[in-house]
């Protein structure tokens, strides 16, 4: 397997995550890696970059490169539909409307949507090394991405607590049953589900720590730098590895007039980025003239991020 085959592109909205993730994925595909680029940003725009509508199922966009857009909402709705179907088979008809109402509310709650999205990402991560050589994730804006990446670590102790509680309840049940002469050894589906979920989350955390890198993207302005520093601290605090930081839309040296003044303002931020992220490495991508939607332009971006 490749070294660090899983790459996340994170940063504020509009900094260039989608463009750079698509360019990087194209670069890896051109190097002969079976590459999947997937967007987890609810404001999907990956399909626009390739000029095709995308869905959850990976679609071949150029040779060696597949693309998909996953949505927590769609995942959550599908999962709830399964639960409703189960409930219809097993529960008394009178309680079904109440169950449906409860589930409809649950599907809209941010926790459900995020954990469903995490499930979809886990599926894809598990495919790396088998179906894909490389997975590139065009992440949602910073806060969203951080929550998603820290969710497995947060969920694991919580699930463990639930499982422990469940086990001790079962222990008391068994003891009571034993006293009246009937040892209850039936399998517990809830406990099984909790255990399976705990294993899955622990596996994801381990996999991300070993095989993933997060590329934070920023434009050289003062405000995003502070946000990038905060994001970096949170990610590394969660055991994730920071990859090369990408500064996008850097005005090329040697411009005149308005652009020259912009460049001067950018210099100060660029110096601070170099100082803060020297260890991780910093890549610069210039401000490009086009709309960045043609294959030729994407190839140009691919060449610019080939060192990540
Ligand atoms: N280096 C660049 N030069 C010029 N335009 C860029 C550059 N990088 C991205 N863009 C443009 O900026 C806009 C936002 O980029 P996008 O990749 O969609 O950002 P994000 O995914 O972070 O919201 C898009 O129109 C994109 O074509
Ligand atoms: Mg985007």
From TrEMBL:
InterPro entries attached to this UniProt entry: ArsA/GET3_ATPase-like, ATPase_ArsA/GET3, P-loop_NTPase
Record-level Gene Ontology MF annotations: ATP binding; ATP hydrolysis activity
Boundaries of every ArsA/GET3 Anion-transporting ATPase-like domain copy: 8-305
Short name of any one Pfam family annotated for the protein: ArsA_ATPase
Signal peptide: none
Entry-linked PANTHER family: ARSENICAL PUMP-DRIVING ATPASE ARSENITE-TRANSLOCATING ATPASE (PTHR10803), ATPASE GET3 (PTHR10803:SF3)
Family from the record: Belongs to the arsA ATPase family.
Protein name: Arsenite-transporting ATPase
Species of provenance: Amycolatopsis arida
Lineage summary: Bacteria, Bacillati, Actinomycetota, Actinomycetes, Pseudonocardiales
């Amino acid at each position: 397997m490749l070294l660090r085959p899983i790459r996340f592109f994170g940063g504020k909205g509009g900094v260039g995550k989608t463009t750079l993730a698509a360019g990087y994925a194209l670069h890896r595909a051109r190097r002969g890696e079976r590459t999947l680029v997937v967007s987890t940003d609810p404001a999907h725009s990956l399909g626009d970059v390739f000029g095709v509508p995308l869905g959850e199922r990976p679609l071949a966009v150029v040779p060696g490169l597949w693309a998909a857009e996953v949505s927590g909402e769609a995942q959550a709705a599908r999962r709830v539909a399964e639960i409703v179907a189960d409930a219809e088979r097993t529960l008394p008809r009178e309680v079904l409307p109440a169950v449906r109402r409860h589930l409809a509310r649950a599907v809209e709650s941010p926790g459900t949507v995020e954990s469903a999205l995490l499930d979809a990402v886990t599926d894809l991560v598990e495919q790396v090394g088998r179906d894909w050589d490389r997975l590139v994730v065009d992440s949602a804006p910073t806060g969203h991405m951080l929550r998603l990446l820290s969710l497995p670590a947060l969920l694991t102790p919580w699930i463990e607590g639930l499982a422990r509680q469940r086990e001790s309840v079962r222990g008391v049940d068994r003891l009571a049953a034993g006293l009246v002469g009937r040892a209850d050894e039936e399998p517990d589906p809830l406990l099984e589900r909790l255990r399976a979920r705990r294993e899955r989350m622990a596996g994801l955390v381990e996999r991300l720590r070993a095989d993933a890198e997060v590329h934070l993207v920023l434009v050289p302005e003062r405000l995003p730098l502070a946000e990038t520093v905060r994001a970096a601290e949170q990610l590394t605090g969660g055991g994730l590895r920071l990859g090369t930081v990408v500064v996008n839309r850097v005005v090329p040296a040697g411009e005149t007039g308005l652009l020259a003044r912009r460049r001067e303002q950018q210099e100060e931020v660029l110096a601070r980025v170099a100082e803060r992220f020297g260890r991780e490495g910093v890549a610069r991508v210039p401000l490009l003239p086009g709309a960045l939607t043609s294959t030729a332009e994407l190839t140009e971006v691919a060449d610019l991020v080939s060192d990540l």
